[in-house]
Amino acid sequence: MRKSYRVKSEKDFQTVFENGESMANRAFVLYVLPKEGQKHFRVGISVGKKVGHTAVARNRLKRYIRAALTDLKPYIKPDLDFLVIARPYARDFNMERTRKNLEHVMNLSHILVMKTTETEEK
């Protein structure tokens, strides 16, 4: 995912965190803030030390999250900034499980334009 798709600055993170609406499942918490007139969505990813004690484990989960977001990119509404915060439950997730849980919480928070998994299976 290109850097233009990322929430980078601490100020932007805090703005989304304080003013955005949150939605969660067991693995992830999402904070979503609509931003009118934006060409594409921006995402910030946070994986704390409670999730993985080593940088290797935390970076692996971040790679999985970025890969899942890249797969879901055509279905994500463009006028949003959102944060993905991993919970300790996601510690041992593989790529498929990460994608399913992330897609679930994104559907709950109405980030996705359409439910990809359910429509592909039918």
From TrEMBL:
Enzyme Commission (EC) number: 3.1.26.5
Domain of life: Bacteria
GO-annotated cellular components: ribonuclease P complex
Recorded catalytic activity of this chain's protein: Endonucleolytic cleavage of RNA, removing 5'-extranucleotides from tRNA precursor
Keyword tRNA processing tagged: yes
MF terms (GO), sorted A to Z: 3'-tRNA processing endoribonuclease activity; ribonuclease P activity; tRNA binding
Keywords, ordered alphabetically: Endonuclease, Hydrolase, Nuclease, RNA-binding, tRNA processing
Subunit structure: Consists of a catalytic RNA component (M1 or rnpB) and a protein subunit.
Protein name listed in UniProt: Ribonuclease P protein component
Taxonomic source organism: Lactobacillus rodentium
